[in-house]
Design a protein that fits this description.
heterodimer; A: 290 residues; alpha/beta; Rossmann fold; 2 domains; 10 strands; globular; B: 310 residues; ABC transporter involved in vitamin B12 uptake, BtuC; 13 helices
């Protein structure tokens, strides 16, 4: 964490977990978890399988609500919000076991997310209906009547959404597959489509859940470039879960290491690599096995 | 002509031709029945094919629409047009009341709840003698559903439906059908999306029921039993889940087959069953699968290969 002092003045805390516990019946999946993610950071969570990494993401995104503790995002308590509300505040995520909209085309998958950049306002729509000269704010979505008749703002907004989505598909290298059903894509491409779909929401915090799972070393390298590229290009705070040590060690300057639901170490890659607790929990086991 | 309006134009052309082709009285009756069935099937298709909520009780919403329109026109002498529209809105309002508690259920559980609620509505209509005349039925409805009226409603509602599924709400519903958790993490309030789908489908069924009353001049609760509900869902599955043109095609095939075999009416249900079994064996994804009919035409849409695998 060598760079922390010099830009501590102008960075803000984006996400803060405060003493979060998560029980499933008698099993404690997450215990006393606290960490903070600063704005603009590229952070990683590592830990062996079953350490509770995905549960942390599920708690942050309100798929589960934590048994105790609280979660703060941009100085707002999001512990009790519903999943879609948390998402609208600007947290987007991908899933470890791929949750694409399988029957929709690749482009539609991204458009489904892109359309949520627009908001809907009844007043704006009503003004649009009542006066033909009124040009509504393009931030707002077309209304129900316009989608019934495909008149008014429909074609303009749809075109914008389509263009934005195609740009993102281009960025992750899937533009030539735009009209294929998402469920028929090869595995590695489905992972990249998930990233594109999450980016389409224009989030403030991106959570990537095991983005390299099931990928071969070459694909992992390409993914490395994609993640660091996105982080730089969109100035996007990113939190990555991985159990491949090498990926995280390479790209994340800030790492949280978990085992059995608890945080066992936090710091820079060097600090993690030299931490005796991490070595015994994670690397130590691997070395003994190898 | 703007490209975005090509669909509207195509649909209106179909409507005008349906309205203008010279036909005998019998054939006209089939067209009216076809329009009525198609309107209801489109409603069910939105819910079952596009939102993934199986329903076996939508005939009840048809019954609500039919009774609303009948009572308004016969008892209160209201013009048929507002009465038909009111039929749709009453069905949607009751659907809202029913949907509040039951839409929390998913999959088979909602299907079972919908059977129960559909039967409950039918039984209420059957036993509320003073208001609906009960099981004896409600006679003396004006025959306001002429061919023009049926075709007009079909064209308007059909255009609206095709446009709707091809816009923001359509993607929202399809997303929550394919993966509810992912949809809620894309910022969709999935319970409210499901409610929107239910309301629109009940509205369509209500309109369809109101038109049916005006066509038959007589309605009784047993016309809207579980048989009818099952038929609506079967038509949607027959045409292909997630394909609105497939629903129209399936509805057309089944309605005309039923008419064709009217002479041997004691075997009609046998033939109906045979058709469903055949489609299940030969093409389990339905006639069109989850593609729209124009995606089969060459050159109109880019490569959609793989879309029909499932």
């Amino acid at each position: 964490m060598s760079e922390t002092p010099k830009d501590a003045g102008n960075t803000r805390v984006l996400l803060e977990l405060d003493d979060v516990d998560m029980f499933f019946g008698g099993v404690q999946a997450v215990r006393n978890m606290s960490f903070t993610i600063m704005e603009g950071e590229l952070a990683g969570i590592i830990g062996p399988n079953g350490a509770g990494k995905t549960t942390i993401f599920n708690v942050i995104t309100s798929v589960y609500s934590p048994s105790s503790g609280s979660i703060w995002f941009r100085e707002q308590d999001i512990t009790l919000l519903r999943a879609y509300q948390v998402n609208r505040l600007g947290i987007a995520r991908t899933f470890q076991n791929l949750r694409l909209f399988g029957r929709l085309s690749v482009l539609e998958n991204v458009m489904t997310a892109t359309q949520n950049r627009y908001r809907y306002s009844f007043r704006e729509s009503l003004r649009g209906y009542l006066s033909p000269c009124y040009r509504p704010d393009p931030k707002f979505y077309y209304g129900f009547v316009e989608s019934l008749l495909h008149l008014g703002r429909w074609s303009g907004t749809e075109r914008q959404i389509r263009t934005l989505s195609m740009e993102l598909l281009d960025r992750v290298g899937l533009a030539d597959r735009a009209n294929q059903a998402a469920g028929t894509l090869p595995y590695g491409m489905q992972r990249r489509l998930e990233i594109a779909r999450a980016l389409a929401l224009d989030p403030k915090l991106l959570l990537l859940d095991e983005p390299a799972a099931g990928m071969n070393p070459e694909e992992v390298r390409a993914l490395n470039d994609l993640i660091t590229g996105i982080h730089r290009e969109f100035r996007l705070t990113t939190l990555v879960i991985e159990h491949h040590m090498d990926l995280i060690m390479e790209i994340c300057p800030h790492i949280v290491c978990m085992n059995f639901g608890a945080k066992i170490a936090e710091g820079s890659p060097e600090e993690i690599q030299n931490d005796p607790g991490v070595l015994s929990a994670y690397l130590g086991v691997e070395e003994a096995a190898g | 002509m703007k490209k975005s309006l090509a669909g509207n134009a195509a649909f209106i052309a179909i409507g005008v031709s349906l309205g203008l082709i010279p036909l005998s009285g019998y054939e006209e009756g089939i067209i009216v029945l076809l329009c009525i069935n198609c309107i209801a099937a489109m409603g069910v298709s939105l819910l079952t094919g596009f939102t993934g909520i199986f329903t076996l009780g939508h005939a009840a919403y048809m019954a609500l629409g039919a009774y609303t329109a009948a009572i308004m026109t016969v008892r209160y002498g209201i013009h048929w047009f507002p009465a038909i529209v009111a039929g749709g809105f009453v069905a949607a309002a009751i659907a809202w009341l029913i949907g509040m508690p039951t839409l929390r259920l998913t999959g088979d559980y909602y299907a079972i709840a919908s059977i129960g609620l559909g039967e409950a509505i039918r039984l209420i209509l059957e036993n509320w003698q003073s208001f609906t005349r009960g099981a004896r039925g409600f006679p003396g409805i004006d025959s306001y559903t002429t061919r023009w009226v049926a075709v007009l409603f079909f064209t308007a509602l059909g255009t609206g439906m095709f446009n709707l599924i091809n816009s923001r709400l359509g993607r929202e519903l399809k997303a929550s059908r394919d993966d509810r958790i992912a949809a809620s993490l894309m910022g969709f309030n999935t319970p409210s999306s499901r409610m929107k789908a239910l309301l629109i489908s009940a509205f369509y069924c209500g309109i369809s029921g109101a038109l049916l009353g005006g066509y038959m001049n007589f309605i009784q609760p047993s016309m809207f039993d579980m048989m009818k509900s099952t038929e609506l869902t079967a038509v949607v599955v027959f045409g292909g889940l997630g394909s609105m043109s497939g629903t129209l095609l399936g509805s057309a095939i089944i309605t005309s087959a039923m008419e064709y075999f009217r002479d041997i009416s004691q075997y009609r249900m046998l033939i109906y069953g045979l058709m469903l079994v055949t489609i299940m064996v030969v093409r389990p994804e339905g006639v069109l699968g989850n593609r729209e009919i124009w995606s089969f035409l060459p050159g109109l849409t880019p490569d959609r290969k793989g879309r029909d695998q499932e």
